[in-house]
Amino acid sequence: MENFKSRAAELVKKLNQASEAYYNGKEEIMSNYEWDAMFDELSRLEAETGYVLPDSPTHNTGYEENNGEKEPHEFPALSLAKTKQVSELVKWAEDKEVWLSWKLDGLTLVLRYDNGELQQAITRGREGMIGEDVTHTVRTFLNVPLTVPVREPFEVRGEGVISWANFEKINLSLEEPYSHPRNLAAGSVRKLDANESGKRFLEFFAFDLVTDLKIPTKCLQMDFMEANGFSVVPHAELSGMDADYIKATVELMDPKHYGYPVDGLIMEYDDVSYGKSLGATGHHENRLIALKW
Q1: How many CA atoms are closer than 13 Å to the CA of 289, on its beta-carbon side?
Q2: Which residue from 67, 202, 226, 237 has the highest number of Cβ atoms inside 10 Å of its Cβ?
């Protein structure tokens, strides 16, 4: 048991150090592949022994940022259940209508609107419960709508990203180039000087309508966000009854042909009520799952 505890403590420490670098825009400590492998090993150890450290990333959903004013989320921004097998996606879809999209690799943000205007933007933050107010920099994004047609209050969740093309362009002007767009995006969003952030060509892609506006399907929610001026993450509507089509769509969504950094795909049930009925763990919601490469 002591060997299990020692290895679990080592994995938790390394994973949390990597998360701290990721969420605070620092140079990455390890690749996504290495992080996922360690996370999977830790999950197996915890399942076998029942031993879970209080700061284990399997039960926490993020790392606390170290700058800026903190702001609580009204709706927790939980993490995702993950798989590396397309067959698991097919099994998960069952006979339901599902929605498949890119898992963008940047910094997750929540945008709050009221009376037709952008009121606040906050990061996902620690455990998806408390984020950092970054409204000043999000207002400089290339495509964030500052005003919207809808007057009632609502929240949109999405990813702040930098395209590969702009990443390469920006890196040429830096004395210390970044290794990946996600680090550049995270660091740029959290700058105190909005003018400097505005030079980084940040973009926002919405992937979730957080507020319950009684819109019954995921696809209609995406239509709602598009109608209000948001760029939404590219997605496909699929039938869980057609396993071959799901597999073919996954193969077509090759990241080499997409202009933004991604680290997988996300599948979600189209029926919003059904998805909510599945509930959530302390780590992730059961209405969606990520395929990691």
Answers
A1: 17
A2: 202
Alpha-carbon distance of 35 to 29, in angstroms, equals 9
DSSP 14: H
φ and ψ at residue 252, rounded to 5 degrees: -70, -30
Calpha distance 292→4 (Å, rounded): 26
Active-site residues, by number, are: 103
Residue with tokens 């150890």: 45
DSSP alpha helix (H) spans, 105-156: 135-138
pLDDT digits (tens, 9 = 90+) for 188-239: 898 778 888 888 999 999 999 999 999 999 999 999 999 999 999 999 999 9
**pTM reported for the whole predicted model:** 0.77
Give the span between the Cα atoms of 170 and 181, in whole angstroms. Answer: 10
Helix axes 181-189, 2-23, angle to 10 degrees: 70
What pLDDT, on a 0 to 100 scale, did the predictor assign at position 217? 97
User: Is residue 80 a contact partner of residue 268, using CB atoms and an 8 Å limit?
Assistant: no
